[in-house]
Specification:
Blueprint lengths: L1 E3 L7 H5 L5 E5 L4 E7 L3 E4 L2 E7 L3 E4 L4 E13 L2 E3 L2 E9 L4 E3 L2 E3 L2 E3 L4 E3 L2 E3 L18
Parallel strand pairs: 2-4, 3-5, 4-6, 5-7, 6-7, 7-8, 7-9, 8-10, 9-11, 9-12, 10-13, 11-14
Antiparallel strand pairs: 1-12
Length: 140
């Protein structure tokens, strides 16, 4: 398992992510396209195409197929996602998950056995790009 952007034990967002917290579930038989905006946790087990926006948790189930741009607080991917992911808190990709797209997040966790085809930009949760520390003052 790869963890980027912080220690797993210290991650507040990892402790908050609980699949049982899903308020709404789009079941395996569900086929949906368009723009999905929600509050609270939502789990997708079916197929979705379009755009998803939330400041909360999105769970992509093992059989799910999502082709969308994601703007989320946090996302846990167990199924297939094709599209860019913008997460304010964290992105977790768990086996047998697949992600084809670019990721913008302050914390990324990838388990062994996952397929990730894209790039990742790590940034602070406020959306500002990470900046290297300033150089030490010149002596002289």
């Amino acid at each position: 398992m790869a963890i980027m952007g912080g220690k797993r034990e210290d991650s507040v967002s990892s402790a908050r992510i609980n699949p049982a917290d899903a308020h709404t579930i789009l079941g395996r038989e569900a086929r949906f396209s368009g723009k999905l905006t929600f509050e609270g946790a939502v789990r997708i087990d079916g197929r979705f195409e379009g755009e998803i926006q939330t400041n909360d948790l999105l769970l992509i189930g093992p059989g799910a197929e999502v082709k969308a741009t994601l703007h989320v607080g946090s996302v846990v991917i167990n199924g297939s996602v094709e599209g860019d992911v913008h997460a304010k808190e964290s992105v977790q990709i768990k086996a047998p998950g697949r992600l084809k797209g670019n990721v913008h997040t302050p914390a990324l966790e990838i388990e062994k056995g996952v397929t990730f085809d894209g790039s990742c930009t790590m940034s602070k949760s406020n959306g500002a790009p990470s900046q290297p520390p300033p150089p030490p003052p010149a002596k002289g």
